[in-house]
Amino acid sequence: MTNLTIIGNGNMARGIATRALAGGLTVEILGQDATKAKELAAELGTGVTFGTTAEAPQGGIVVLAVPFDAAKSVVSTYGEALTGKTIVDITNPVNFQTFDSLVVEPGTSAAEEVAQLAPAGAHVVKAFNTTFAGTLVAGESGGQPLDVFIAGDNADANAAVSSFISAGGMRPLVVGPLKRSRELEGFQFVLMTMQANPEFADFNWDTGLQVTK
Amino acid sequence: MTNLTIIGNGNMARGIATRALAGGLTVEILGQDATKAKELAAELGTGVTFGTTAEAPQGGIVVLAVPFDAAKSVVSTYGEALTGKTIVDITNPVNFQTFDSLVVEPGTSAAEEVAQLAPAGAHVVKAFNTTFAGTLVAGESGGQPLDVFIAGDNADANAAVSSFISAGGMRPLVVGPLKRSRELEGFQFVLMTMQANPEFADFNWDTGLQVTK
């Protein structure tokens, strides 16, 4: 049985799959490009299955490890094949033309837009939008386990995602309903502009975001 | 010469004053209540001057360590007395009735609303909205110096606030123009709901927010 399907074969797919495998989950990689999906699956180790997005996802949790526009397209295309699934939206809808705003309007979020496109029987959960890929592969930042901020409207779906995150050695923080994705996406947008800003010489798309105590 | 005027005599005034004094700055406390301002000044140590908000602030940097509505009122009342000053807005405009939204509309921020009320010759800088009072007094969170996120439109004002923050043993992070306050306020709103949520037993208005590496 497959626990987790990851749509995508890039750096975020690699990072999330690495943590899931560390947590003992079974992982399926579905990419647009069959060769790249096969290569990533092989790199991750034995037992990782793979295929293309022409196939229906097998996992109960489906992580959309693709950019925002592609995430919307994947959900629309799969349609009813996602019924009963927990869909994890990790996207940051940054306007990369201006790098001065999001491409979603104030008062909404990428996760809410993705949820609008999902079938009624699926639950969309925001997670992993503040964890850069390299920190997921490393499994830590600043010597601490990663904090993963989670927002979602369905308690069971939030719990399923939290459970996987805990298994992978990270700290799940369920911050509230799906609309809290607005604030999660907004803050990560700011952190992304800092990575791109040469004044922050130490920040190179490799920082973590931690609630300390 | 006074470097820093703090408007307010509550926990945030205490925290920011503690760090400023640790950094060797001279501090003035102006409260609505003369007795409370005097008590806080005495608690902070010798050399801290005090008075009421009936007096014009002496510091080049004026920190509004009061709630959002009071911050707007202070700026309006002072008017031209703030010309030439760097005004630090630390507020979080949370709707404490619902605890489910901010009281400012999406697409704006408390800092921008305060700036609308300030005289043309003053510069408003957002800072300290993610640092809880206790962590400022302690000067650390999780064993690390505090990160202080800063947003402002005037480079000199941002630099002056950064300099004070560095002197006080904290890490200044100038994230961008004043409108980035929207994202800073939005995220802290989420962190505040977590402090109030009994599911986060460890979070009691005492956590820090850190960019790790």
UniProtKB/TrEMBL annotation, chains A, B:
<dbReference type="Pfam" id="PF03807">
    <property type="entry name" value="F420_oxidored"/>
</dbReference>
<dbReference type="InterPro" id="IPR051267">
    <property type="entry name" value="STEAP_metalloreductase"/>
</dbReference>
<feature type="domain" description="Pyrroline-5-carboxylate reductase catalytic N-terminal">
    <location>
        <begin position="4"/>
        <end position="93"/>
    </location>
</feature>
<dbReference type="InterPro" id="IPR036291">
    <property type="entry name" value="NAD(P)-bd_dom_sf"/>
</dbReference>
<dbReference type="InterPro" id="IPR028939">
    <property type="entry name" value="P5C_Rdtase_cat_N"/>
</dbReference>
<keyword id="KW-0560">Oxidoreductase</keyword>
<protein>
    <submittedName>
        <fullName>NAD(P)-binding domain-containing protein</fullName>
    </submittedName>
</protein>
